[in-house]
Amino acid sequence: MPQLRDRGLQDDVWLQHDGAPAHFALSVRDVLNERFPGHWIGRGSPTSPAPLPWPPRSPDLTTPDNSLWGIIKGRVAARRYKNNEDLRRVVEDAFRTITPKML
Predict the structure, then answer these.
(1) Would you say residue 102 lies in a domain?
(2) Confidence tier at 86 by pLDDT (50, 70, 90)
């Protein structure tokens, strides 16, 4: 949240949560309503049931699952790693190559 606020993006971001039962708790929805008023997608969101229901695992809404992770995996899986720190560095480097246009 601080990074979104600092970049002036908080009002432009829509949060899509995964629909896990724990995320449907009233306390979670209260926080989402406070921090993303009218801008979150998931079970019990202010946008569902009107105007359209937003399924939490809709393939057209989960671009990271369909594209981003494939790009990252392709860059990271190209070699073997000696330790977790080496793997972490390569994963972070791979994410740094993702441009806003790609997203």
Answers:
(1) no
(2) very high
Of 59, 49, 51, nearest to 16 by C-alpha is: 59
In a shared domain, residues 41 and 15: yes
Domain containing residue 82: 62-96
Would you say 44 and 29 are in contact if contact means Cβ atoms under 8 Å apart?
Answer: yes
What crossing angle do the helices spanning 69-76 and 84-96 adopt, rounded to 10°?
130
Same domain, 30 and 74: no
Q: What is the pLDDT of residue 52?
A: 43
Q: Is 24 found in the same domain as 47?
A: yes
Query: What residue ranges in 4-87 does DSSP mark as E strands?
Result: 15-16, 40-41
For the entire predicted model, the pTM comes to 0.45
Is residue 73 domain-shared with residue 52, that is, in the same domain? no
Q: What confidence score (pLDDT) does residue 82 get?
A: 92
C-beta neighbour count of 32 within 10 angstroms:
20
